[in-house]
Amino acid sequence: MTTQTAAAPTAGKGLHLGLWVVQVLIGLAFLMAGLGKSTQPIAELGKNMPWALAVPEALVRFIGVSELLGGLGLILPSATRIQPKLTGFAAVGLVIVMVLAAGFHATRGEYPGIGVNVVLGGLAAFVAWGRLVKAPIAPRGS
Questions:
Q1: Of 123, 23, 2, whose CA–CA distance to 73 is shortest?
Q2: How far apart, in whole angstroms, are the C-alpha atoms of residue 57 and residue 61?
Q3: Under 8 Å between Cβ of 95 and 124
Q4: Which residues have a Cβ under 8 Å from the Cβ of 76 and sit 6 or more positions away?
Q5: What is the pTM of this model?
């Protein structure tokens, strides 16, 4: 009598490819947004993002650096396969940033901004699920 054990499910190439596409696209989006918020003069940012004039400059810069690091975190750990789980953690962090941003925009009645936050947050949640649960990338040397 032979017993069979169920093998752990493996993610298909399509899921890996989809995750990579989303990681790179939203990674670049967060890199660009973060770079702008962390380097542009606040008066210049306020032309396109009126909320930047309503909060302390240090908060705008903190958000920018957080988005910049999150964007890097979506790409570099997986691409280098050095601590690739950090990609999933970066995605979780960006989900939190987007939830907080959506709440902030709701209090100000900036409803188009919420749509952007929901889309980016949803895509970041997909990356978090994919890289932490369904299709993790093996670390270098494994």
A1: 23
A2: 6
A3: yes
A4: none
A5: 0.88
**Among the listed residues 97, 104, 79, 102, the one whose alpha carbon sits nearest the alpha carbon of residue 34:** 97
Query: In the chain, what are the domain boundaries?
Result: 14-134
Q: pLDDT tens-digit profile of 74-126?
A: 999 999 999 999 999 999 999 999 999 999 999 999 888 899 999 999 999 99
Contact between 65 and 34 (Cβ < 8 Å): yes
Helix 13-39 crosses helix 111-129 at what angle (to 10 degrees)?
A: 130
Per-residue tokens: 83: 């601590």
Q: What residues contact 67, with CB distance under 8 A and at least 6 apart?
A: 30, 31, 33, 34, 37, 94, 97
Q: Which of 77, 66, 5, 2 is nearest to 30 (CA)?
A: 66
Q: In 3-state terms, what secondary structure has residue 25?
A: helix
